Amino acid sequence: MDIEIIGIDHGNAAIKTRNASFPNGITEYDFEPYTKQNVLEYGGKYYVCGSGRLPLLKDKTTNDSFYLLTLTAIAKELDHRKCESRTDVILAAGLPLTGFGLHKEKFKQYLLRGKAERFVFESRDYEITIRDVMLYPQGYTAILSNMHLIENEPSVIVCDIGGWTVDIMRLDNAIPNAETCRSLELGMIRCFDEIGEQVRRNTGKSLTSAQIETVLKGEACSIDSKARQMTLEYGRRYAGKLLSAISESGFDAGAMPIIFLGGGAGLMKRHVTPQDGLCRAIVLEDVCANAAGYERLARQMSQKLSP
Question: Is the pLDDT at 306 greater than 80, yes or no?
Fold first, then answer.
C-alpha cells in the first residue's frame, strides 16, 4: 500500500492542507444531521465540521476536536488527490517556534494513535492509518519554499498572522535566530472581535466574522456604508497596531523587510503600502503555505531516509 504524505496546518481559526482550507468549527450530533456536506461519522457519532470556529484552545490536545478535524482534513485532501480511501498516511504538521520543543512530543502522540481509523466523511468510507507524524516550525517552513523572495537579504523578519497568535522571528542568512522568536496574542480573531464590538457600539448592528472578513478582503457584501467604513477603518488600525507591536518586540521594521504570511497577510497587503514608508512588506497570501511547506519538507526527509 502506498503512503500519502499530507501536510496539515492546525490553526486556531481554520484547518489547512495543501489543497483545502476550512473553519475549525465542529458540532457533535447523536443522530444523522440535516446535511451530508462536511459530515464526519466517527465512533458512533456525527460531526459537522467547518461551520463556525472552535473556542480558543491553547492546548490543542485537551480534547478530540483537533483530532477529528485532522481526520476531516485527511479525507478532504485524499479526495482532492483522487486517492484510495484505504490509505496509510504520514502527517506533516507544525507548531510555533517559541514552544516547539516543549509541545512537540505531546502533539505528536496526540495525532499518532497507532491504529487504523475507520470513519465516514460525506458518505464515503475511509480506513486511515497514521504511520508517523513529522513536526516542523510554522512560519519558517513556508519561507523555505519561497526563498527566492529574500535573495540578497541577509536578515528578514517573518510575521505569521494566525487566528489567535502572531508569531514573529528574524532570519539571519535564511536561518531562524531563536533568541528573536516572539508569539503575540494579536491574531485575526482579536481583530474581528474588536471590529465587531466597535460596529455594535456605533451602529447597533451585529456583524458576523464572515461579513467582517469579506469587507476586509475588499469583496462585495450587503452591509450598510457606515458599518463597512468602520470595518475598514479598524482594519487599518489593526495593521498599525501590529506594526507597533513588532517594533516593541525589538524588531526594526525600517532596517529589513517583513514577510507577512498566514490568514492575516492579505489585510497587511492592503494596508501597508510602499507609500506609507513604514516597512518593506513581502506578502505571502496563500493561506495554505504552511501546510504545503510541512508536506514539502516531509517528502524531502522521507526521500533521504529511503534505502
Answer: no
The residue among 279, 256, 260 whose CA lies nearest residue 269 is 260
The radius of gyration computed from the CA coordinates of the chain, to the nearest angstrom, equals 20
Residue with cell 527566492: 148
Which helix H or strand E contains 70, and what residues bound it?
helix 65-81
CATH ID of 3-139+291-305, from 3.90.1300.10, 3.30.420.40, 3.40.1440.10, 3.30.9.10: 3.30.420.40
Q: Write out pLDDT tens, residues 96-128.
A: 878 888 889 999 999 998 899 999 999 999 999
Take residue 54 and report the three cell numbers written for it. 472552535
Q: Where in the chain is the domain with CATH 3.30.420.40?
A: 3-139+291-305, 147-283
- Give the CA-trace dihedral at 65, 71, 73, 77, to 10 degrees: 180
- Could you tell me the sign of the dihedral formed by the alpha carbons of 58, 111, 260, 207, in that order? negative
Q: Which CATH class is domain 147-283?
A: alpha beta
* Residues 9-60: tens digit of each pLDDT: 999 999 999 999 999 999 999 998 888 899 999 999 999 999 888 988 888 9
Beta strands 3-7 and 9-10, pairing class? unpaired
> How far apart are alpha carbons 282 and 289 in whole angstroms?
14
Q: What dihedral do alpha carbons 44, 131, 64, 13 form, nearest 10°?
A: -120
pLDDT score, position 276:
62
- Classify strands 39-42 and 86-95 as parallel, antiparallel or unpaired: unpaired
Whether the CB-CB separation of 128 and 71 falls below 8 Å is answered with yes
Span 195-236, pLDDT tens digits: 999 999 999 999 999 899 999 988 888 888 999 999 999 999
DSSP, collapsed to helix, strand or coil, labels residue 91 as: strand
Query: Which residue shows C-alpha cell 533521504?
Result: 304
Q: Which amino acid is at 266?
A: G
